[in-house]
Amino acid sequence: EGFHRAAALLVSRGVIKLEDMVAQFEPLGDEYREWHASRFSELKQSVKKIGVVSLASKAGDDALEAPVRKAGQTARTIELDTKPFRQIIGDGDQRLEFLGHLLACGAWDEATLLVRHLGDHGVRDVAACESVGLALCAILDDELGDGMDRASLSERSLAVISLLGPHLHFDLRVFAKVVALVSGMVGSDGKGNKGKEKKEMEMEKEKEKEDKDLGLQLLLRTLLPAYNLVPSNVAIANALWSDVLSKLTYPERFRLYAEFGEVVADSPLLQASEKLAETEARRILRRVTAPTNNKDTKKTMRPIGRLLAKVAHANPFVVCRQLLRQVMGMPGMVASISESLKYLTPMAFDVLTFSIVKQLSSGKRKLKEDGVNLEEWFQWLSLFTGIVCRTQRHVEVTALAQLVANNLKQSESLDLLVLKEIISSMTRISPTVDVSNQQLDALAGSQALVQYVVGEEEGGKEIGGKTKDPARVLQRLLVALTQGPKEDQLLLPLLLLLAQQKTLITLHPPSKHLKLAAELVDKCQEVTMQYVEFLQKSLSPSEYQALLPSEEELALDYKIDAEIVMQLYRPLYRPILRKSFFCEEDGEMMAGAGSSKDDGTTNNAIELNSSAEEPAIKRIEEQVTKLAPGGAFAGISWELFVCFWAFELPDLRVPKARYEGTLKQISTSKRNLEDDIASAASRGGGQYGGGQQAQQHSTELPLEKLRAELVQLSTLSEVLPADMNAQLANVAEVSALFERASRLWVGGAVGCESSAAREFVQHCMLPRLLMSPKDAIYCVEFLRRVHMLGSPGFRLLLVLDRLFKELAFMARCTTERESINLGIFFGELMWLISGWRKKSVFDKECAGSEAFKVKDKPLTFAEWTHLTASWSGCLFEVASSCMSGGKTNYMEMKNMLLILNRCTRVYPATREDAEALLAVLRPISNDDPREDLKTLARMYCTSLEMSMRDRQMVQTRHEYAGGKPPPRPKKAAVPPAKKDEASKADGKPPPRPKKGVESNGARRKTKDAKDATGAMEKNDRKADGLDSKTKGDNMSKRASRGGKQEAANEGERRVAEKQ
Q1: DSSP structure class, residue 190
Q2: For residues 337 and 288, is the Cβ–Cβ distance under 8 A?
Q3: Each residue's pLDDT tens digit, 437-464
Q4: Rounded CA separation 625/642 (Å)
Q5: Residue 629, Cβ neighbours under 10 Å: how many?
Q6: d(Cα 178, Cα 221) in Å, to the nearest integer?
Q7: Which of 458, 533, 625, 908 is in the most buried spot, having the most CB atoms within 10 Å?
Q8: Is the Cβ–Cβ distance between 101 and 7 less than 8 Å?
Q9: Measured CA distances, 653 to 445, 735, 738, 781, 905 (Å)
Q10: Per-residue pLDDT tens for 371-413?
């Protein structure tokens, strides 16, 4: 070192020429080039051996032996320093040591000539020598001084930074200075240009652009590589993020990260840093296990998360790639991995977002080879993406949403899964698709009731822990989708793309398999409903209205289906309808609703109080009529169309029984919790042991958890009664609105009843009942309300008849979710119809009703019974046709099984149909090679057998249609001679008569006489009409033939007396 320093002093003072001094260093000439190339090759080989375990190698074989580790994994055992690898090319080189002393002496010109000479001999990274790197850092420190702007960056400073490259990490104080300098270069927003002339402003913008480009190059070539070579320093990571990276847009940052990968590929030292970090990350992640519960996950992953964070502070790129590799390759590790991320820096989360985007857009196959099922890595990565978006606020949600939007533009519908997980996780809005028959009534309740009854099973347990502040997470998603200028915001584009995607999937499916296309359609419907609910929940009414284009633009310009358009505008129509159909003073209906007369003039049937409301209702009329084919409806009015689509199930029905049952259940749970809290408090933690402080810490968490749950239940017990009362008032108001508006629902033209039924089924019932279980029940409840109101011209029988006829078509062209909704609808509809099949109910609710008229004549009970039997037979024919297709019509069989599984409480109505269906389905449940069909068939067969046992069914279809039940077959008496012959054939002697008892012949004569007498008495009872069941059937038959009402009443009286 002394020789090199003396030589540098002599050269700097001109005593000796630089060329003469360099010629004294060994090796000389071309030998030096070869020597340096060998050292560089040795460095590459050492980097390749990092993390490689060879069982055949011996001690001393490797150029760089790994240090001996102690047992266990702690922060001290983590090896991230690249100094041993840097010394391979930096130490032992006399020319580099001489260069370091030249720089220290201030001989900049001579040092520059020597750098050029070394470059000619293949030496590119002169700052790898520690003395050179430290000397360059000292020079740069003097050059920058205290200035933190672009003016303090001279040409010499840029040359020094270029020579340093990634070795700026030698002096972290100078590193911080460069960070501050680059921050001023990339963070200029042009605010100082206000008030200047246009030419000056353009020149300033051009200069700012040049400064920003230079700052980005310094960031790419110097700051990021130097940060990667720092073993672990969270302060440097935070400074680099807050001062520089956070001022860039996410496309600029992600472009920078992608280019940085190319920089790493050209530098063996950076590769060594990545491989060291990768080895440590793998060693840490090997300790991650699948969680048993949320508490154990947090406890186990806390120390692992700290170790992982220390590695990520040094090299977040490698750690994030390794995390994703672990998530995609190890099923069930999503919760554990997401729990280990809480100690990462904001920069690490930004790099994690970039890694997720890179992985999703890598072109890796997302479908399995069968072309139907999604790859597991894609499913786990989507789930992980949703969790980190919810739990970590530094994740760039905008970038992920933009990726999904770009893929949807290209009809890549598989990425709907990513958007679904993000929305479900961040908004806690879960579509109610898997609802049991016992939970259907809860869908008519408030949001709190639905969340308690249905959400506990579907979405009550969140993977990765529950969100402490759901409203804040919801707002964060809204901010992410409204970030940037208005033309770059994603709030409306995502809505339009989702609304169009269902049609695009149908026309351009991603696979030839119909099953995959059906699943994607279902997923698209779920995500669309989630997103619409998110918008309506997070935006104010004025903001929501300003966001949406007009109904005409949505339907005609963007080609969005009418049902989605009406779903979007539903919350905007409701207040207008309430104000339009009621008067503020006396509550009477106003004249003027815009219903058309036969002569083509417009009759204003609803008057508006204020001039502000009249344009609103007129606008609804104009926009809605454009959604109809040909611009107008022929049978139904636009008022019926709007009233049907503007309201939801809680507006028509109040599940009082479910409210009361839930409150009783909550009361019981509260008492149990209070007992548990008292018991835990009385124990005082003594059962845990370990001293008073340990006991207090052990009992604190369970007690706090129990108390929090008790507070939650107490709040719910106060909310539910208030919700029920508010819903009762709302239902009463909507009922009054329907009553006032019902006379405008069907036009008054002659013969419009048939077209009204057709249009109502086509434009209202069918699109909505397929959307969700809640909408399916709403359709049935709406029909019941229309029947109760007796709307003029509305023929319910025509609507029902058309629905049952459309079943054969719908069962063959619906998806899995739509089939479930269809089954729920027909189950509820047939339950409603079965209630009207009781004569007392029919006479009270249906006889003489406007909805039960056929050609202006009221329907009789016998005709109604026969009509419902024909509908039941239609359903049986459709089911039999779908089930008898064999292996060619998989979708038809599956759809029909899904429909039937939802109708077992009311269908089939006869044992004849039930036994016929069982005969068709038993071969499928036993021998079908398709496991999903076999499972569905077994489920239905079991449910149907239980229903046949518990439910009273008539025997035949003829009896269900009101006909007389068939007589029971009599048992044929076996002659005694044949009995004796049978006994002899079996080898048994005939029984002998006992003493004192009459013989077999006498007993036989007595028994024959009794049987004859009983048969005569039974025939007499039948003849006299005393048998209750037969008498009732006779009366039904007489009623069906047009008998008098008095005969029917007399028959019912006799049946009641007999019972």
Answers
A1: S
A2: yes
A3: 778 888 888 888 888 887 654 444 455 4
A4: 10
A5: 11
A6: 12
A7: 908
A8: yes
A9: 8, 10, 13, 8, 21
A10: 778 888 999 999 999 999 998 889 999 999 999 999 999 888 8
